[in-house]
Design a protein that fits this description.
Helix content of chain A: 40-55%
Number of domains of chain A: 1
Number of domains of chain B: 2
Structural class of chain A: alpha/beta
Largest sheet of chain B: 7 strands, mixed
Order of helices and strands of chain B: EHEHEHEHHEHEHEEEEHEEHEHEHH
CATH superfamily of chain A: Thiamin diphosphate (ThDP)-binding fold, Pyr/PP domains
CATH superfamily of the largest domain in chain B: Thiamin diphosphate (ThDP)-binding fold, Pyr/PP domains
Oligomer: heterodimer
CATH architecture of chain A: 3-Layer(aba) Sandwich
Shape of chain A: globular
Number of strands of chain A: 8
Radius of gyration of chain B: 20 Å
Largest sheet of chain A: 6 strands, parallel
Number of strands of chain B: 14
CATH class of the largest domain in chain B: Alpha Beta
């Protein structure tokens, strides 16, 4: 894809993510959506930059803040929105919800509500990919809060030892739930752990889409070529609280203002105005198109039926076949 | 009749399934070296270390790896060296393996077999001797099986591997070298969820599994000449339980004794007692009895740990006591 077209495509994907999360927030405020929601507004460059190198048959896994990863991997936004709204037409028939999205048609294997739980699972997807011999890779997203878990450290060791085709994408947003990372560890650059386990690792500005895009391009190529895992730490910021409804009193207002300056979408748009000749009208149209698609998704979810009551305890076990 | 040990039967089942299906992989500490008891001996030589994979001592990550691989198409068999160490993998097993099929609305299947070894033998103490099957049976989405004889060991390991769900296959260490009739090459799969009535009787049902099956059969043989006809049921599958077979038996005998090596409280025995009384209350001639280990950690000393293993003598005492109290039978 020519660079100018690629830039517009990446901008559109970030807007799709942003519009999705803002719509979820709006539907939560109006009680169309209930539950425990963790939004990634402000972190779009990581999801989009990382997934832009992936094939449909590459595997992606995420955590509790993973709506955007599923959207960026190409999952159907209507079925995602319906799932988060608990509707029968959702990807999981309403049984998964916000924290447990699965969209296998798009290669989004699973998200999990257990911090760090997705990392060992991603080892397995990478192990199967390696055995399958079709140059598939796995990418796992997690936050800095997962970096102090046993699952994280055990998994770095195994991925490195077995040279699994896996890219670790750490979204270091500086907060583990309500607590700044500095209160949880002396090692605030999680990439240092990867180096300890013998894995190439990079720390970069996660609000700089092209930085993420370039680093992930190299990382995915290395994994796909059978040269083992790579760790990419993206320094970023969530503009919302830990969960929707979290007043986030633990953060300074000045900090939020500073990060708004670094908004990945505005930054990237400014950059490609000069580099790729993006006009204000074009940008407006890209945003409007994303918002229209998400509005459709919201209307689809709202119009969708609830799951039947007798579905509540079905699919506990898989039938044979 | 051809004989083999339970350990050999498991190995034969693993071998046949690995030969039958290239998606079957073995993962665990030292499995390529045969494992601590030799169950997987020879598999690496037969199938290569790419499919029989030694792992670091990282139970949680290895369990997650096996689940993730199962989610995208492999059929892994993971060995947790002692059931006591499954505690290290419980997040992955309980929050992920057991729930991913459900949470994904059926998009994911987790055809995973978890081999674990349990029980009291060799004076290994509190952290290498437990029977934790009730924890696992309590989790919707997991299946739990445990064989008491070589033929079932082979039949059940094959069933576990072929099942599209996570199945915990519990091996009692004290039975590894117990010999019995061999299942034979290519033998049938033992269906999960079916108990076996090993001895028919009229006066009391003894329901048990694993090592206590042999003790129950010995006790039943000793009771017969004294006029107490005991029916012995090997549960084989602890999740799901074969309630049809249990209830039918209790309706006939009117009495039930459940025996397990796990500690007494909150165990499989409690679940069975609840469900049997609900289904067959008016057929009962006396209270449902439970024989289990004391509700205590397991001591290391050989002078103490034997009190934690219900055997023939304890079963005889329990059965005779029941009839004495009731003023019926023997």
């Amino acid at each position: 894809m020519p660079e100018a077209a690629l830039h517009r495509e990446l901008l559109a994907r970030m807007w799709l993510n942003r519009a999705f999360e803002e719509k979820v927030s709006e539907l939560y405020a109006s009680r169309v959506i209930t539950g425990l929601l963790h939004l990634a507004i402000g972190q779009e460059a990581v999801a989009v930059g990382a997934c832009s190198h992936l094939r449909t048959d590459d595997w992606v896994l995420g955590g509790h803040r993973s709506h955007g990863h599923a959207v960026a991997k190409g999952a159907d936004v209507k079925r995602l929105m319906a799932e988060i709204a608990g509707r029968a037409t959702g990807y999981c028939g309403g049984k998964g919800g916000s924290m447990h999205l699965v969209a296998m048609d798009a290669g989004f294997v699973t998200a999990t509500g257990v911090v760090g739980g997705q990392i060992p699972l991603a080892l397995g997807a990478a192990f199967a990919a390696k055995e399958g011999g079709r140059q598939q890779v796995a990418v796992v997203f997690f936050g800095d809060g997962a970096g102090q878990s046993g699952a994280f450290h055990e998994s770095l060791n195994i991925a490195s030892l077995w040279r699994l085709p896996l890219v670790f994408v750490c979204e270091n947003n500086g907060y583990a739930e309500f607590t700044p990372l500095s209160a949880h560890t002396l090692v605030e650059r999680l990439a240092r752990h990867a180096e300890t386990y013998g894995m190439p690792a990079h720390t970069l500005d996660g609000n700089d889409l092209l930085a993420v895009h370039d680093a992930m391009g190299k990382a995915v190529s290395q994994a796909r070529a059978g040269k083992g895992p790579v760790f990419v730490e993206c320094l970023t910021h969530r503009m919302r609280g830990h969960y929707e409804g979290d007043p986030a009193k633990y953060r300074e207002l000045s900090q939020l203002a500073e990060w708004k300056e670094k908004d990945p979408i505005a930054r990237f748009a400014r950059m490609i105005e000069t580099r790729s000749g993006l006009t204000a009208a074009e940008h407006g149209a890209i945003e409007a198109d994303a918002r229209a698609r998400i509005e459709d998704a919201a209307q689809f979810a709202i119009a969708s039926p609830w799951p039947d009551a007798d579905e509540a305890d079905t699919q506990v076990s898989a039938g044979h076949g | 009749m051809a004989e083999q040990s339970l350990l050999e039967a498991i190995r034969e089942g693993l071998h046949e399934e690995m030969a039958r299906d290239p998606a079957v992989y073995m993962l665990g500490e030292d499995v390529a070296l045969g494992g601590p008891f030799g169950v997987t001996a020879g598999l690496a030589e037969a199938f290569g270390t790419q499919r029989v994979v030694n792992t670091p001592i990282s139970e949680g990550a290895v369990m997650g790896l096996a689940i993730g691989a199962a989610a995208v198409g492999l059929r892994p068999v993971i060995e947790i060296m002692f059931i006591d160490f499954i505690t290290l993998a419980m997040d992955q097993l309980v929050n992920h393996a057991a729930k991913l099929h459900y949470m994904s609305g059926g998009q994911l299947k987790i055809p995973l077999t978890v081999r674990v070894q349990c029980g009291i033998s060799g004076n290994m103490g509190a952290q290498h001797s437990q029977s934790l099957e009730a924890w696992l049976a309590h989790v919707p989405g997991l299946k739990v099986v445990t064989p008491s004889c070589p033929a079932d060991a082979k039949g059940l390991i094959k069933a576990a591997i072929r099942d599209d769900n996570p199945v915990v296959f519990i091996e009692h260490r004290g039975l590894y070298w117990a010999r019995g009739e061999a299942a034979g090459a290519g033998a049938a799969v033992t269906p999960i969820g079916e108990a076996a009535v090993l001895r028919e009787g009229e006066h009391i049902t003894i329901a048990t599994f694993g090592r206590q099956v042999a003790a129950a059969l010995e006790a039943a043989a000793e009771l017969a000449p004294q006029g107490i006809s005991a029916e012995v049921i090997d549960l084989r599958s602890l999740q799901p339980l074969d309630m049809d077979t249990l209830v039918e038996s209790v309706r006939k005998t009117g009495r039930l004794l459940v025996v397990h090596e796990a500690v007494s409280e909150g165990g499989i025995g409690a679940e069975i007692a609840m469900r049997v009384q609900q289904a067959a209350f008016y057929d009962l001639d006396g209270p449902i009895l439970r024989l289990a280990a004391p509700f205590s950690p397991i001591p290391a000393s050989s002078a103490l740990d034997r009190f934690f293993v219900p055997g023939k003598a304890e079963i005889l005492r329990a059965v005779r006591g029941a009839f004495r109290r009731q003023g019926a039978g023997g």
